[in-house]
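A.,

Following up on our hallway conversation. Structure tokens first:
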């Protein structure tokens, strides 16, 4: 992948959501809630406290979703990142 976010932005890939509950009930894709955690794939030149490979928690309904090389990614402003796990 050849993409670098600019400024105070991070490029992340959402963590996978389980298809089954703990009791074994299947959850269809359209009923899954999108996770609020993601792995950092790339960082902008003004990002200091986060590094590539970190798992972050971010605010719900934030960021810009897009596809690159067949993969889904999310670009977040650093102000929408709540913390690092």
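Then the amino acids I'd put at each of the 85 positions:
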């Amino acid at each position: 992948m050849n993409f670098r976010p600019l400024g105070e932005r991070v490029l992340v890939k959402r963590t996978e959501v389980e298809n089954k509950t703990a009791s074994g009930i299947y959850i269809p894709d359209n009923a899954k809630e999108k996770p609020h955690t993601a792995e950092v794939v790339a960082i902008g030149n003004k990002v200091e406290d986060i590094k590539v490979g970190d798992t972050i928690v971010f605010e719900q309904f934030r960021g810009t979703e897009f596809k690159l090389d067949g993969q889904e990614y999310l670009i977040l402003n650093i102000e929408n990142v709540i913390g690092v796990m």
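The mean pLDDT is 87. Curious whether your intuition agrees with the design.

B.
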